[in-house]
Amino acid sequence: MPNSPILQPVTIGALNLKNRIVMAPLTRSRSDNDGVPPDFAADYYGQRASAGLIIAEATNISPQAVGYAYTPGIWSDAQVESWSRIVRTVHANDGLIFLQLWHTGRISHPDLQPGGKPPVSASAIKPEGTAFTREGMKPHVTPRALETDEIPGIVADYRRAAENAKRAGFDGVEIHSANNYLLEQFVRDSTNRRTDRYGGSIENRLRFPLEVVQAVTDVWGGGERVGIRISPATTQPGETPLDSDPNATYGAYIDALNGFGLLYVHAIEGVTQQTRDAPEGVDLAALRHRFKGAYIGNNGLTLDLAEKELAAGRADLFSFGRPYLANPDLVERFATGAPVAEAPKAYWYGGGANGYSDWPGINGPVPVRRREPV
Ligand SMILES: Cc1cc2nc3c(=O)[nH]c(=O)nc-3n(C[C@H](O)[C@H](O)[C@H](O)COP(=O)(O)O)c2cc1C
Q1: What lines the ligand 1 site, CB under 6 Å?
Q2: pLDDT of amino acid 240
Q3: 224 pLDDT more than 80
Q4: Within a 10 A sphere around the Cβ of 304, how many other Cβ atoms?
Q5: Is residue 44 annotated as part of the catalytic site, yes or no?
Q6: Among 83, 85, 303, 373, which is least packed, fewest CB within 10 Å?
Q7: What is the average pLDDT across 154-182?
Q8: A GO CC term (predicted)?
Q9: H or E element in which residue 163 lies
């Protein structure tokens, strides 16, 4: 609806947003074998620049971080160059864009790893499910537990990725600490059985993620342009609870994150893409109120639901994932009450421009201004 408070401008920290709508990070697996996003990704993101903030798809910080075929990276110059073209296009269309920094840890496969080696994790615990490789889906394998002295190297990879994101011109970065990728594999006690200073107590399990937050905020000159994504209630990739005491673990995490002055925490509420209900015993509301910065709610939201959440003071911004696949003009559709289109799953991951940057808006093609480097 045109007067929806969700569609009014808002200032969050140093960012002036056109509205409270955030495009959630969406892996689309259209990069080349060197992790370079295609040129038509600039159209895709440019078409969606009417969102208050775009969070670009999860992007690998290093070759070891890769866990899905055709996902982009941010470690090489060619990747930075392609991302900077995307960022320029979003800016030319008056949008703001953050990059999501990703290390998949055990949610990978030797086929995707340098030298065909097993993926790494906090501990050698095999995830349920399958990995998306260039040869199709393959069962996950048992990962190798990282040695204590390898961890500073991964923190350095995050630092370089944060520097490269800055070089590419992004407005900020989001640290991906959700959906059971590497950082969450350290946070949760079901996937972290370490006996060194990175395992055991909550303080120890949070040590590596917080070292990453420190490195990234150092690069960005503080937390003003850094957010973090968490999923305290998700059970993915399996069906079982992933921490023995999520309220204590994530409460301590949020308390520690408060010390970095982060712009926002972006929470997946409930089980990712499945339900907004948290498993019994996970108190998402308490966690939300513990965080001092802005809060982005996500998971199964509609405009109506977002309005209710805002009115109840439960969230500041609202991110939409699946609705952004086939609706480049989602904001316009919300403003006019136009129907929201659904993207068939065949288009979600892999392929070219078809089903990706060729979705029309409600009034025909969504024009994109392209700006060449000066
Ligand atoms: C195709 C697809 C790709 C996704 N890729 C990412 C990703 O790269 N990073 C991430 O944090 N979440 C990712 N997600 C999760 C979404 O950001 C979001 O949390 C989820 O879809 C629930 O929100 P929704 O109900 O608005 O879709 C992905 C979801 C989908 C459907």
Answers
A1: 24-27, 57-58, 100, 176, 178-179, 229, 268, 272-273, 298-301, 320-323, 348
A2: 65
A3: yes
A4: 12
A5: no
A6: 373
A7: 98
A8: cytosol
A9: helix 151-167
Residues 125 and 142: beta-carbon distance below 8 Å:
yes
Q: How many CB atoms lie within 10 A of CB 179?
A: 20
* 80 Cα–ligand 1 center, Å: 23
Taking CA atoms only, the protein residue closest to ligand 1 atom 25 is 300
Mean pLDDT of 106-128: 97
Q: Which of 44, 70, 181, 198 is catalytic?
A: 181
For the chain, what is the mean pLDDT?
96
- In sign, the C-alpha dihedral spanning 92, 93, 94, 95 is negative
CB atoms closer than 10 angstroms to residue 137: 10
Domains and CATH numbers, the chain: 5-347 (3.20.20.70)
CA-proximal residue: ligand 1, atom 22 (nearest): 299
Is a pLDDT exceeding 70 seen at residue 1? no
Whether the per-residue pLDDT at 373 is higher than 70: the answer is no
Could you tell me the two tokens for 169? 């011109």
pLDDT digits (tens, 9 = 90+) for 256-265: 999 999 999 9
Instruction: Work out the percent of the chain whose per-residue pLDDT is above 90.
Output: 91
- The Cα–Cα gap between 125 and 192 comes to 9
Average the pLDDT over 210-226 and give the result. Answer: 98
Residue to mutate, 59, 234, 273, ligand 1, most ligand atoms under 8 Å from C-beta: 273
**pLDDT tens per residue, range 128-144:** 999 999 999 999 999 99
Examine residue 127 and say whether the peptide bond preceding it is cis (omega within 30 degrees of 0). Answer: no
CA torsion, points 273, 313, 12, 254, in degrees to nearest 10? -70
